[in-house]
Structures are given as structure tokens and as C-alpha cells.
Amino acid sequence: MSWQWVTSDVALREAIEQARGYEAVAVDTEFRRRDTFFPQVALVQVATPDHCWLIDPLTLSDTGPLKALLLDPSVVKVLHSASEDLEVFEHWLGVLPSPLFDTQRAAALLNRGFGLSYRALVQQLLGTELAKDETQSDWLARPLSAAQCEYAALDVTLLIACWPTLAGECHARGRFAWVLEEGSHMSTGGRGPLAKFKNAWKLQPKQQAVLRALVEWREAEARSRDKPRSWILSDRTLSDVAQKCPSSLPQLAAIDGLHQGLLRRQGKALLSLIADATASSAPVEALAKPASAAVKRLAKTLAGELTTIAEDLGANPEILLPSRELELLAQQAMGQPTPEPSHWQGWRKDTVIAPLQRRALQQLKQGAAT
Question: Do domains 198-279 and 293-369 have the same CATH topology?
Fold first, then answer.
């Protein structure tokens, strides 16, 4: 399939007018994120069964038509493993594609494999072997080479070629709405920057308060300066500061990893932040501890039940419910306060969550009887 460069606002309007006449369009992005907090958009690819456009964001002043396409409720946006693309669109355009059909999630709901790579999906559905030659390209360089353009165009032309098979199978098995619902729950940011500090629950309450304050400060700095978090303060150094709670510049300077430039520019501000966090009398929500042995035992039982549900449905169990959420279900059954993720509603509620909740209560009753 041939492709067309889009390098002007007029060309973008014309391309989007054509694309919006189709039931679905395949969408992909190329970006760079080596030395920035936010992804730097370098290319947007859009394809229908008949056309392919390579949209150059570096030459556009009016992105309104592209926003309109991404939000058009009558056009399904087909992406594969969309999380990074969503970050690009959210930062660059302030929107997320909707309705969104993520082919990786669709494949898992059809029992074609969980976490299937794009290359594996294309090989499985189309029998085509994709090259990896341009995966590490500098997509911000101009002009792009012919090989880069061909690679970028193939990403979406093959994706839209996969769409009829996946969509057809989803419709036949009553899963099409499930995939769109999955897309509606997708967001950016993951579980938040605190999630990576897995041993933070061991800290004293004041140290936890300092950790939270430091993480929030680093997040704000990284965003305002558009630099990676590790360039502001590494996770290890941040943890050391939280553990030691220094109260003077010499104490702060003694912590390994705090470079002189940061001490000079932000040393006093950091000490003030630490002092405020340790002096505050406001209640601080304790960081979550690892699950108890009893919760883990019940979660293991629920894992077996989840496998059975998946086999009955003909889907990969991992797409039905992440393994870490089995512990949430176990905690809930034991009467522990447990916030329910939003994706426990919708198609999962009766198909997955309710059967697991019944199994958990049944298991607890059996344990109490013995």
C-alpha cells in the first residue's frame, strides 16, 4: 500500500475528512523519550483499508482535525498495546482516543495470547514477518529515510489488515463491547510513582510522610522541567533521604547521590519540605503492607478458580483479572477495607468478579467449618 505525507494544516484536514468516512482506523505514533519526562511526538500514522497517512506533527499549527478524529464516536480507533500512545496524545493533544480497540487486549480475550507483541500478532493473523530495523530510529530527525517511512506505514497498514479478523471474532463471541470497554478504562500514569517503593511500608510514619512529600516534589520538578525523574533524584537517593530525614545542609550533603548542583539550588527547599512533613500532625495514610499469609492462601485458591473461568470463556486468565487483584478480592472477603478498581464493573462484574467473590466466601466458610 502506498502512503501519503501530511505536512500542512490543509493536508491534515483533507486526510481526516477521508479517514472519518470509515468504520475504523488504525493509529500509531513514533516518539522519543530519552532525556525528557514527557514523550516527544515525532510522527503519527493513520490507516484505513484503502489509505495510509504519515502525519508530521513538527509541521502542523492546527491539530484540531486529528483531535476530532480521535474523539469521533462513530470511528473506532485501532491501536496495539496503546498505553505509550495514550501518553503521547494526552500530553500533545490533551485527548485520549475513543472508542479504542486495543488489539493486544482483544487477542487475550480471544485466547490468542496474553501480552502478544505486534510482530507476533501480525505473524499469527497475516503470516507476515515484520523487521525490527527501525525500532531504535531517531524519529525526530528530518528528513526521515525511505526505510523509516516504510516501517512506519507498515505499522498501521498491517494493523488495519488485522482488524477484520479480530473484530469479526469478537462480534461472534460477544466480546466486541468488552474490548471497547477495556479501551475506555485505559489511562496514563499506571499505579502512580509511589508504587515502585515496594519496601516503603517498613518505614516509620514520619519517614513515610517524608517519602510521600519527596515523591510529590520530584514529580512536580520532573514535569515542570520536562526531565526524567531519575535526573532530578534517583529512587535510591530519595529513599535514603526519607529514611534519614536530615535536618541540616551537612546532613543532607552526606547522603550519597545528592549532587552539588541540587544541593545548591534546592537544598534549603528540601530541608523545609522534610521539616514540614515530619512536623505535620495531619493523619497520613499508611503505605500498603504485603498481603498476609492467609490472604495469599486465599488468593492462590482464587487463582485456580480464575483459570477455570478463563477456560470456560476461552480467554487468557491474565486479561480477566491481574494476579495482584486476587489479593484484593481475598482481603475484601475477609472484611478488610478494599477499594474496588473501576474495571471490576461492566462485563467483568458478573462474568469474573461475582464468581470469584462467591468462591472466596465459600472457601472461608469451609475453613471455618474445619
Answer: yes
The answer to whether domain 4-185 has CATH 3.30.420.40 is no
User: 78: which strand partners?
Assistant: 26, 101
50 is catalytic: no
**Mean pLDDT (the chain, rounded):** 94
Predicted confidence (pLDDT) per residue in 139-194, tens digit: 999 999 999 999 999 999 999 999 999 999 999 999 999 999 999 999 988 888 99
Average of per-residue pLDDT across 206-225: 96
Please check whether residue 314 is in contact with residue 173, taking contact to mean a CB–CB distance below 8 angstroms. Answer: yes
Q: Alpha-carbon distance 238 to 246, whole Å?
A: 12
Architecture of domain 198-279: Orthogonal Bundle (1.10)
Question: pTM higher than 0.85, yes or no?
Answer: yes
219 is catalytic: no
- Of the residues 56, 87, 155, 327, only one is catalytic, namely 155
Catalytic status, residue 30: yes
Give the residue from 188, 183, 5 showing the smallest Cα distance to 88.
188
The grid coordinates listed for 276 are 514540614
N-term to C-term CA, the chain: 67
Catalytic one of 134, 151, 221, 327 = 151
- Tell me the pLDDT band of 226, cut-offs 50, 70 and 90: very high
Q: What are 293's three cell numbers?
A: 499469609
Residue from 56, 85, 134, 305 carrying the catalytic annotation = 85
Q: Is 28 one of the annotated active-site residues of the chain?
A: yes
Does pLDDT of 135 surpass 70? Answer: no
Q: Average pLDDT of 57-83?
A: 98
